[in-house]
Write a structure and sequence with these properties.
The complex is a heterotrimer of chains A (281), B (293) and C (302). With 281 residues, chain A is α/β, with parallel strands linked by helices. Chain A has helices spanning 53-61, 87-93, 115-127, 131-144, 150-154, 163-175, 193-210, 221-227, 245-250, 255-267, 269-275, and strands at residues 11-22, 27-38, 42-46, 68-77, 80-81, 98-101, 181-185, 213-218, 230-235, 238-244. The N and C termini of chain A lie far apart (49 Å). In chain B, α4 packs parallel to α6 (168-180) and α10 runs antiparallel to α11. Classes of the chains: A alpha/beta (281), B alpha/beta (293), C mainly alpha (302). Chain A binds chain B through residues 48-49, 163, 192-198, 200-201, 204-205, 219-223, 225-226, 249, 259-273, 276-281, and chain B through 58-59, 197-199, 201-202, 205, 223-227, 229-231, 250, 253-256, 262-276, 278, 280-282, 285.
Chain lengths: 281, 293, 302
């Protein structure tokens, strides 16, 4: 297994002029994306269907679908170029260095295997733990996810849990091998607002406690504004805005970004915040 | 305990006209499958002409069940529902059919891709309510469709296309046109903009605002607090089948009273950060659980 | 739907083949130049002026026998189709609307039928019901009904649960309206496909049964029977057995091509195909796109 943490651990992910194209039909889907994620930093990617955000993440994880390929540019993970990676190198990288959670947690879990066992499997394969050690670690992870009864959840099946709880289980499985980078691609989109807030809190806590570098992808600018220091806005395969969150929110340069901001100001809670002070606590 | 905001809240002036929709102490029982709670418990709700009323709740709160009860798609165990003066809870199947044909109430679904027949052209989908009702000639129907399309700013040339051939925003406009064509008095919209992209969302929300008139009342159901705040005058907050708070939307959002509303508002992401931090949210959540509301 | 099917090449070829087959079935016996069951010439002759398709091992005119046998061979298959449709499609449709009890029972019956081995069952049924074309076709029809049950049921289910039907109901639509305006268009393509593939199966089954000597007594002419009788003489006169083979194949091919054509022109994919073909004809495209990366329904690629 390759230990990448000693090499240049200041910059977690560096993407330079990434272009992605599909082969059938022949079209360029992502037109030159550049960004940098620092170790311990949080990067938000905002974009809608067709913006290229999911493809970009897929490229970083090395899971582009068939008939879609990287045609140009570099992706470096902790200083290592992933362009020439073979299967084994990706296997070594995934889980141990970089991990991801996606939108529908139910579809990433085996419906006929108890949840605890699924996390155990990750630990045993990736970290070589024994059965007993894996079980202990799984229970520790589940309670770290603020699941109220980890021993109970350990024995449950996916269909017995709500969306928010399932997502926590998936996050537990994703961070079990101890990755340094976690990509959350629309991880909270399908969740209720209050549950979403809890999961976002959890991600922030993981970042603070474990030094995780986060990439949070969402179509909602506010979600990204919550926990990310830097924001990237994508549209039609291109980056239209990139910078520190404060700057992007207060002095956006692109029309699309302005539209997203004005939508919140016109049709969102921000409207109330502007004119009246929220008294919630 | 649950404090319901009184109607003397700032900015909440109920019009004198009788309610278009009056839901009184409605109770909808458990669904057949075990563990599936479809409970709506002692809900009171009103919509008057000229109003846009919001109904917020998370999944499982019962908001869609209330809509379905009003529309006659779900059996009501207790309570009364009056729509435009008619007591619909005691309707028989044929009474429902006649009532629906009059087009007094209409419904806009969340996903137009599913609510429009994929093998029927848009123009025919829009005119369906009129054709079901009958009594109009082909030309009259065509004229009505064109007029309605213009009102929702849907290009006439798209009327001959199939749903898969037009964009999501255009589809939702078509669905709204279909809901408007029978000149309804009450329109219920269930998450009408969740499936749309940002630019289209804004356009559709603006269009909904423009529907406000003396003869129409809108019930806007959503889990997205943002859009509810954006367009509604009054809002009901639903939690586990009960209305825990209601009042003028602005006041409700800026100074929520009930624990749950506070948690909801405090969890909504905004550009300037959440109103509550993680610890406060957990505290509210714990309090909520112990109350067992 | 039929008009659209004719717009693709497979549909046109199918129309020609099936047209010929049905024409023969109806008018065949009348057009036979010679009496099909009497010896008219020397045995096993090849093509000649008097006997276009030669003679069989008894000396009967093959062409006449083929024409005379068309009716039985085709109508027998048609009977299979009708029975399969009635026994299958109607319960299939009803299973959606008549409640849980009926649904459960009908599903279990159909499951059992699917589990039975086909041709063996056909032979057994014929032995049971008697040696006649009608009986065997009846049995085969019943055996093939599960397909129609499933097609009718799944179409009815997906339509009944759809939101657009709910929307129509909310505007006061009656069940009859929903059937006419929404269900019919959806169920027609898969039913048509089932009808044509069942027809093809029916043709093969009746040919097989008559080949085996089951169901029809000699000297009655059937395509399968002619093949059976003359097959042993193939080394001497290949024409006699080959003719029925070619005709059966053509008929079956016609059915399957029709099914293909209907499938290709139905639904969204069908509309795309037809639009693309029309555009190509008008000179706007250079090729008809075959594969499309799914970009619909929130399943984003981007």
């Amino acid at each position: 297994m390759v230990d990448l943490t000693t090499v240049q651990d200041e910059i977690a992910v560096e993407v330079h002029d990434l272009r992605i194209r599909s082969t059938v039909p022949d079209a360029e889907l992502v037109h030159g994306v550049n960004f940098t994620l620092r170790r311990g930093g949080t990067l938000g990617i905002v974009g809608e269907s067709g913006s290229g955000k999911t493809l970009t993440c897929a490229a970083v994880l090395g899971i582009l679908p068939k008939q879609v390929e990287r045609s140009h540019g570099t992706i470096e993970i902790f200083g290592r170029h992933t362009a020439g990676f073979g299967r084994q190198e990706w296997v070594d990288l995934r889980g141990n260095v970089i991990s991801a959670v996606f939108q529908d947690p139910g579809s990433y879990l085996n419906p006929s295997i108890r949840l605890g066992k699924q996390i155990n499997e990750v630990l045993r394969v990736k970290k070589g733990l024994s059965r007993k050690q894996a079980k202990e670690e799984t229970l520790r992870l589940l309670s770290a996810m603020h699941l109220r009864h980890p021993e109970l959840v350990y024995d449950q099946y996916a269909h017995e849990l709500s969306g928010g709880m399932l997502q926590r289980v998936v996050i537990a499985a994703a961070i079990a091998p101890g990755p340094k980078i976690l990509i959350a691609d629309e991880a909270t989109t399908a969740l209720d607002v209050t549950v979403q807030a809890e999961v976002l809190d959890l991600l922030t806590e993981l970042k603070d406690r474990e030094g995780l570098s986060l990439v949070v992808v969402s179509h909602d600018l506010a979600v990204v504004a919550q926990i990310c220091d830097e924001v990237l806005v994508m549209r039609s395969g291109e980056i239209v805005e990139y910078g520190p969150t404060d700057e992007v929110l207060h002095s956006p340069s692109n029309e699309y970004t302005k539209l997203l901001i004005s939508e919140h100001e016109r049709y969102g809670l921000d409207r109330i915040i502007e004119s009246e002070r929220l008294q919630v606590a | 305990m649950a404090l319901t905001a009184s109607s003397s809240r700032r900015g909440c002036k109920l019009p004198e006209t009788t309610a278009l929709l009056n839901v009184e102490q409605v109770h909808v029982g458990y669904g057949r499958r075990r563990g599936r709670k479809q409970v709506v418990d002692s809900v009171d709700l009103q919509v008057h002409a000229g109003e846009i009323v919001g109904l917020i709740g998370e999944s499982g709160s019962g908001k869609t069940t209330i809509a379905r009860a009003v529309l006659g798609l779900t059996h009501v165990a207790r309570g009364q529902i009056r729509v435009a003066g008619e007591e619909v809870t005691s309707f028989s199947a044929s009474q429902w059919r006649d009532f629906r044909r009059r087009g007094v109430v209409q419904y806009v679904f969340q996903d137009p891709l599913r609510s429009l027949d994929p093998d029927v052209v848009i123009g025919d989908s829009i005119s369906e309510p009129l054709r079901i009702r009958g009594g109009l000639s082909k030309q009259e129907i065509k004229a009505a469709v064109c007029a309605q399309a213009a009102e929702v700013r849907l290009d006439e040339r798209l009327l001959d296309r199939f749903p898969a051939e037009i964009s999501g925003g255009q589809r939702q406009r078509a669905a709204i046109a279909r809901a408007l064509i029978s000149q309804p008095k009450l329109i219920i919209l269930d998450e009408p903009v969740s499936a749309l992209d940002a630019a289209t969302r804004v356009q559709v929300l603006e269009m909904l605002l423009s529907l406000r008139s003396d003869s129409v009342g809108l019930l806007y159901i959503s889990h997205d607090i943002g859009s509810v705040i954006g367009i509604t005058d009054r809002t009901y907050v639903l939690y586990r089948g009960r209305v825990v708070e209601h009042g003028a939307t602005r006041a409700l959002a800026s100074t929520p009273q009930h624990l749950y509303t506070r948690l909801l508002i405090g969890s909504t992401p905004t550009l300037s950060g959440n109103a509550l931090d993680g610890a406060q949210r957990r505290e509210l959540r714990a309090e909520l659980e112990t109350l067992g509301v | 739907m039929l008009r659209n099917a004719l717009r693709v090449p497979s549909g046109r070829i199918a129309a020609v083949l099936l047209g010929i087959v049905f024409f023969l079935a109806i008018f065949g016996p009348l057009l036979a130049p010679d009496a099909p069951n009497t010896t008219v010439a020397a045995q096993l002759q090849g093509t000649s002026g008097a006997h276009l398709l030669g003679t069989d091992y008894v000396g009967r005119d093959v062409l006449s026998r083929m024409l005379a046998g068309s009716t039985l061979s085709v109508l027998g298959a048609l009977m299979v189709v009708v029975i399969a449709f009635v026994v299958g499609a109607i319960p299939g449709l009803l299973s959606v609307y008549l409640g849980r009890g009926f649904e459960w029972v009908s599903l279990r019956v159909v499951d059992t039928m699917i589990a039975l081995p086909f041709l063996v069952f056909a032979v057994a049924m014929t032995a049971l019901l008697g040696n006649g074309v009608v009986q065997s076709m009846f049995a085969v029809g019943i055996l093939l009904s599960p397909v129609f049950f499933r097609v009718a049921r799944s179409s009815a289910l997906s339509v009944a649960r759809s939101q657009y039907v709910e929307a129509a109901t909310l505007s006061g639509a009656s069940t009859a309206w929903v059937m006419r305006k929404h269900f019919l268009a959806k169920v027609l393509p898969p039913i048509s496909i089932a009808l044509s593939t069942t027809m093809a199966t029916g043709l093969v089954v009746i040919a097989s049964l008559t080949f085996l000597g089951i169901g029809v007594q000699p000297p009655t002419a059937t395509w399968g029977g002619i093949l059976a009788a003359d097959l042993q003489y193939i080394a001497i006169q290949p024409l006699a057995p080959l003719v029925p083979v070619v005709v059966i194949l053509a008929a079956v091919l016609g059915c399957n091509l029709f099914a293909d054509a209907v499938r290709d022109v139905s639904g969204e994919a069908g509309r795309q195909l037809l639009n693309a073909r029309a555009a190509r004809k008008a000179g706007k495209l250079t090729r008809v796109p075959r594969a499309r990366i799914g970009l619909r329904k929130g399943g984003e690629l981007g």
